Automatic annotation (TrEMBL):
Domain HTH tetR-type: 12-72
PROSITE patterns assigned to the protein according to its UniProt record, in alphabetical order: HTH_TETR_2
Claim: Nucleotidyltransferase is one of the keywords in the record: no
Keywords, sorted A to Z: DNA-binding
Transmembrane regions listed in the UniProt entry: none
Pfam families, A to Z: TetR_C_24, TetR_N
Name of the featured protein: AcrR family transcriptional regulator
The keyword DNA-binding belongs to this UniProt entry's keyword annotation: yes
Organism: Kibdelosporangium banguiense
Taxonomic lineage from the root: Bacteria, Bacillati, Actinomycetota, Actinomycetes, Pseudonocardiales
DNA-binding region: 35-54
SUPFAM superfamilies reported for this sequence: Homeodomain-like (SSF46689), Tetracyclin repressor-like, C-terminal domain (SSF48498)
Length: 198
C-alpha cells in the first residue's frame, strides 16, 4: 500500500491509515465505486466509525487531494530555496516529481481522476496550490531554456507532469530503473528544443 504523503516514517495515525486505504480503493474502483463501509473494512473498523475521523467521503477526498498539492508545493518551494543553480534546480524538481509519482501511485491516480469529484471550495483550494507548484517549474524552466516564453514553459511543465504521472499505469521496469528513465526523458523533453517539421 502506498504511504500517505504526509507520513513521516513514524507509525501512521488512524487518519493517515484511512486516507491511504481510501486512496488505494479510489484508485482501483473509482471514487463513486467505493462506499464508506469498503473504506472501513480496509482499515478494520465499521463504516460509521469513519465519521469520527471524517465528516463524509467528500471530506476524505478533499483532504487527500489538498494534502498531495500541499506536499508537492512545499517540496518544490523548498528545492527552489536550496538550489540556486538553475539546471540543478530543474533536475531536482524532476527527481522530486518522479519520486513522488513512483512512491505514491494510488495518490497520483486519484489526483488525476477525481478533481471533478471535489466540492467547489476544495477544488478551488487544490487548483490554487497546483498553480503555485507549476509556477516553481515555469520559473526554473525559463531560467534553463534560453528564449522560452512563459506559455511554452507552462505547457512544457504540464507535458512533463503527464509523462511522469502516467507511470502508475505503465510500470514495466523496477522502481530504480523507471526512476532513471523518467528523469532522463523529462530533462530531455524540457531542455532539447527541436525544430518542428514544416
Amino acid at each position: 500500500m502506498s504511504s500517505h504523503p504526509l507520513s513521516t516514517g513514524a507509525p501512521a495515525t488512524r487518519r493517515e491509515q484511512i486516507l491511504a486505504a481510501a486512496a488505494e480503493l479510489f484508485a482501483r474502483h473509482g471514487f463513486h465505486g467505493v462506499g464508506i463501509d469498503d473504506i472501513g473494512a480496509a482499515v478494520g473498523i465499521s463504516g460509521p466509525a469513519l465519521y469520527r475521523h471524517f465528516r463524509s467521503k467528500d471530506a476524505m477526498l478533499g483532504e487527500m487531494l489538498t494534502s498531495i498539492s500541499e506536499v508537492l508545493l512545499d517540496g518544490g518551494q523548498s528545492l527552489a530555496a536550496r538550489f540556486t543553480e538553475p539546471a540543478g534546480l530543474l533536475a531536482e524538481l524532476v527527481r522530486f516529481q518522479v519520486d513522488f509519482a513512483l512512491d505514491n501511485p494510488a495518490l497520483i491516480t486519484v489526483q488525476e481522476r477525481n478533481l471533478g469529484n471535489l466540492t467547489d471550495p476544495d477544488r478551488r483550494r487544490v487548483r490554487a496550490l497546483q498553480r503555485r507548484y507549476v509556477e516553481v517549474w515555469v520559473q526554473a524552466i525559463q531560467e534553463v531554456v534560453a528564449g522560452i516564453d512563459e506559455p511554452s514553459a507552462r505547457a512544457a511543465a504540464h507535458a512533463v507532469f503527464g509523462l511522469i504521472n502516467s507511470t502508475p499505469h505503465s510500470r514495466h521496469l523496477d522502481r530504480d530503473q523507471m526512476a532513471a528513465l523518467l528523469r532522463e526523458m523529462a530533462i530531455a523533453a524540457l531542455t532539447q528544443r527541436g525544430t518542428a517539421a514544416p
